[in-house]
Amino acid sequence: MAGAALFRAEGIGKSYPGVRANDDVSFDVAAGEIHALLGENGAGKSTLVKMIYGLVRPDEGAMTLAGQPHQPADPREARSQGVAMVFQHFSLFDALTVAENIALGMENPPARRELAARIAKVSQEFGLPLNPARRIVTLSAGERQRVEIIRCLLQNPRLLIMDEPTSVLTPQEAELLFATLRKLADQGTAILYISHKLEEIRAHCDRATILRHGKVVDSCDPRAHSARELAAMMVGGEMRLIDRTGRQAGDVLLEVRGLSLPAPNAEGTALKNVSLSLRAGEILGIGGVAGNGQEELLAALSGEMRSAPGMVALQGRDLGGSGPVHRRKAGLLTAPEDRLGHAAVPDFSLTENTLLTAGPRKGLVKNGLIDRAAAKNFAEAVIKGFDVRTPGPGTAARALSGGNLQKFVIGREVMQNPVVLVVNQPTWGVDAGAAASVRQSLLDLARSGAGVIVISQDLDELLELSDRFCALNEGRLSDPRPTEGLSLDEIGLMLGGAHGMEVAHI
Amino acid sequence: MIDPLSIFLLLLSASTPILFAALGELIVERAGVLNLGVEGMMITGALAGFAVAYVSGSPFLGFAAAATGGAAVSLLFAVLTQFLLANQVASGLALTLFGLGLAALFGKPFEGVKAPPMIPGPFRINWIVWLGLVMVPLIWWFLNRSRGGLILRGVGENHDAAHALGYNVRLVRIGAIAFGGAMAGIGGAFISIATVLQWTEGMTAGAGWIALAIVVFSNWTATGVLVGAWLFGGVTVLQLRLQAAGVKVPVQLLSMAPYLATIIVLVLISARQKFSRRAGGAAPGSLGQNFHALR
Asked: Where, by residue number, does the polypeptide cross the bilayer (chain B) (predicted)?
């Protein structure tokens, strides 16, 4: 299976102002191998693959591809040498068709009809059905990824780079992706696979190179190590164990009945007859692939989207028709997914940002005037209580790293002693250490008697945190099931399965 | 006296300045750049074209100079927005003010003189009118069928993705801006060289703003731009005829009729779901956003 080294990097280094993104990175990838690049956010994985793909030029070091020096000046040159890449954030053009998107990713695209025929042939061969005339906006996340993969496959790549490809896929779609990758590897393509999903790497990758703070810290066979050991290599120390103990289910705090709302805009999802109940001390996990109504559900619970009276009740009090301020006063707090722009105003200081949600509940506004001192004290308490690394409460929100801002956003809600807290994607794009502390704070909050709803696309996170699990699929919420004993397969089916994918048949 | 053919010929002539400016701006906006300086580029073209045509005696040389002049001032905008990453709205407004002032200053010596006569093209229709009509299918073909047009649309739709695929976002945009400037310049010169036959300060009279509106309401299509320009031209001709016929409607109302009618009709046309990205064409995804690549 794995042959001689196809790609080799030696002593690669790259600096940005104030950051050493890569430092003396050396590794190699063999033809026919699925090679994992593991590391926390900010470990330098993306910078490294961008250099291989010609998007960024290394400051020092050398790369070789099949024995020849590899110094692509731009992605086109990299593509012509057989390097293809599927991006973490899709590099697709929403308003263009599948065929146009694929043509833009090729050096010399054939005429329209021939291109359509070739797309059909490759998608048939790999079991990735696609209609070349469809516009990208109408496709699901899984289908979009198919477009990217087929765009790569049409160029017969020797080295295929995949940057966190499974973060938007259901487990079934992810399985099919790996089936496709394995076929490709068996045909001799080298695959460089970036992820921080350890189980996935253990199951499917032949070798792993682990990066930490821009340096290669280890190289191993991921199948020979446990996920815990890999995580320890990634973060450079033992991971703190999550403490789930000491919680007791109490009275029903939040009752949602028959919540239906039309889609807020053309790209949104309508909520269809959503019902749930949440007890004190309980964590309810809501899973689903992005775009199935997560944002809308959070907005409906926070009061940003008004529902009809009778749809939402907190401790027996009807809040269905009231807006965010009223709901916050009653104790129903929320932390939305988008940290910069939705949960926090980027150019406001942390003090000002605390005012935005904690104003009503913490008495930071008196007689229409802001109590600056109280706001600053509260911001400082959040910074201290949640280990937010920042010079002080006067810092602008945008100056914080993703993990630190997330700790701040969650901490700001938790420290208001909510009756019920709803969070969406609490650890999205946050490194492992910060993610663990955010999760622990949610568990601690539940232990103190609050109810917590965690909406997330990270199934491992939901399984780790929640007592009961439901799936959100096209705006419909499934019946909750106890998380204990729930398998990933069952969850995948709850999420709506693989949306028409089939296994590759070569 | 009002026979349909002569009305149509007048309509073609009245719509030509706006057609040129709007087709140029269409390319600019499809590349993801919002250049609000159309009026400034038109007036620059109107003066440059008139001056060269007057001095050289060749109207065609004048149009070439108008295209060059329009492109030259548009490159100021390009430097501001593509290299210095200045705000596009503010830079475009500045370009309009700059162009109006510049043309007024250098236009003083050309006040009161008459443009050289033009040789009419086939069917006694001005060559530049023909050129405008040919540009519509050409630009449609470029945008929808050619490789270059696909890249241009890609850059306008998602500049990050285009950059990630290795396209030079900045270069594509500078080219589009210069083309838009040249087209606006020709449109402006048509007013001074072929319609009014002399130079007066501020003679483009807001045509650039109508061209901008037409691009938006055309849903960013070449055919839509043609419809919008003809509508404007048609109502212009009509209200002039009504004024000449001495209809008892205040002149001010008649004069504003073309602007009002164009906006109202185009709003009605575009109201039906046109702004939904699922429904079909719509604003380019990166319109008005500056692009900065980290290397």
From this structure: 31-53, 60-83, 89-106, 127-143, 174-197, 209-233, 253-271
Span B52-63, average pLDDT: 93
**Distance set, CA A355 to CA A390, A412, B228 (Å):** 18, 10, 49
Q: Is residue A247 part of a domain?
A: no
Q: How far is A56 from chain B (nearest CA, A)?
A: 5
Q: Do B157 and A90 touch (CB under 8 A)?
A: no
| Residue A478: DSSP 8-state | P
Query: How many domains does one find in chain A?
Result: 2
Q: If we measure between CA atoms, which residue out of A460, A3, A432 comes closest to residue A207?
A: A3
Under an 8 A CB cutoff, do B276 and A94 touch? Answer: no
Strand ranges, E, within A338-419:
365-366, 369-370
The pLDDT of residue A502: 39
Which pLDDT band holds residue B32 (cuts at 50, 70, 90)? very high
What does pTM read for this prediction? 0.72
Q: Which two tokens stand for residue B179?
A: 């083309």
CATH number at residue A49: 3.40.50.300
Does A182 share its domain with A302? no
Tell which A residues from 470 to 499 touch B, by Cβ distance under 8 Å.
Answer: none
Do A230 and A261 lie in a common domain?
Answer: no
Indicate whether B20 pLDDT > 50. Answer: yes
Residue from B157, B221, B287, B292 whose CB has the most chain A CBs within 10 Å, to mutate:
B157
Residue B271 pLDDT:
65
Question: Low-confidence residues of chain A, pLDDT below 50?
Answer: 1-2, 497-506
Whether the complex's predicted ipTM is more than 0.85 is answered with no
Task: Please report the pLDDT score of residue B273 as a whole number.
Answer: 47
B contact set with A (CB within 8 A): 147, 150-151, 153-154, 157-158, 160-167, 276-279, 281-282, 284-285, 294-295
Q: Residue B231 in contact with residue B259, Cβ under 8 Å? A: no
Q: Does domain B4-204 have CATH number 1.20.1050.10?
A: no
Q: Which residues of A touch B163 (CB under 8 A)?
A: 55
Domain that holds residue A61: 5-235
For residue A78, the distance in angstroms to the closest alpha carbon of chain B comes to: 9
